[in-house]
Amino acid sequence: METIVNEAVDELNNTFSIQNTSKPTIDEFNKEAQSCMKRIKDTTDLITKVQSETDNINQLMQSLKSKDDELQAMFNKIDQLELLVTKVKNTYNAVAENLDIVEKAVNASTPFRLGNRYKSDMPIQPYFPPPNQVDIYDTNELFTSTHL
After folding, report:
1. What's the pLDDT band for 148 if we cut at 50, 70, 90?
2. How many domains does the chain have?
3. Where in the sequence is the domain holding 7, given as residue range(s)?
4. In whole angstroms, what is the distance from residue 79 CA to residue 48 CA?
5. Residue 52: pLDDT above 70?
6. Residue 126 within any structural domain of the chain
């Protein structure tokens, strides 16, 4: 009888041992822990990638900002050149108008002589009105000279 009791104790001991009872739970726990570790690693990799891309984007933004500043300076120069071209055009038109006035005055001052009896040896001094005021654009502001 003692043998039967010892065999029953050994059988119950093997069947209900902590190792045998907890093994499926420990295996499941290890499996879930491995899954969590993989997700953590994947998340870490994604965070690293996002940080790298963010750094690249920030560098690109700085480069774009620098180019924008250069372009704004260039646009300002272009605007000044457009103003200069407009001023030169207006000056040219004013000078051309003055030339037209002088040409008309010269053509109008040519005397029409009827004969030799009114001829004098003294030349006739025609009157030419002074030309209109023409403002010339000062380009020193636009074209600064570094060579003095």
Report:
1. very low
2. 1
3. 2-106
4. 46
5. yes
6. no
